[in-house]
Amino acid sequence: MFSLWGVKCPLQVPEQREAERGDRNIGTARYQYDRVHAHGLYDVEVDTSVLDIDECVKTIMEALEQERLPRAFSQLRQKFVTDGSSL
Q1: Distance between CA atoms of 87 and 82, rounded to whole angstroms?
Q2: Rounded CA gap, 23 and 84, in Å?
């Protein structure tokens, strides 16, 4: 089974990272921000502006260890394939 993880943060965080890296096209983060999470369904979500990498990993690992059945992919399939919805 597959789990869908949402790795999120407020828009200003990826915009700042984009500018600091110096090798990114400025504006890409803003362009992608709403699109990448448009479906809105995840089995586990973490916020990289609040949690450091170790805390994100811990959150995801705890969810996997709880053996919760992943639901996001099946819900997305139902919404977009069976029902014919669009983003």
Answers
A1: 14
A2: 39
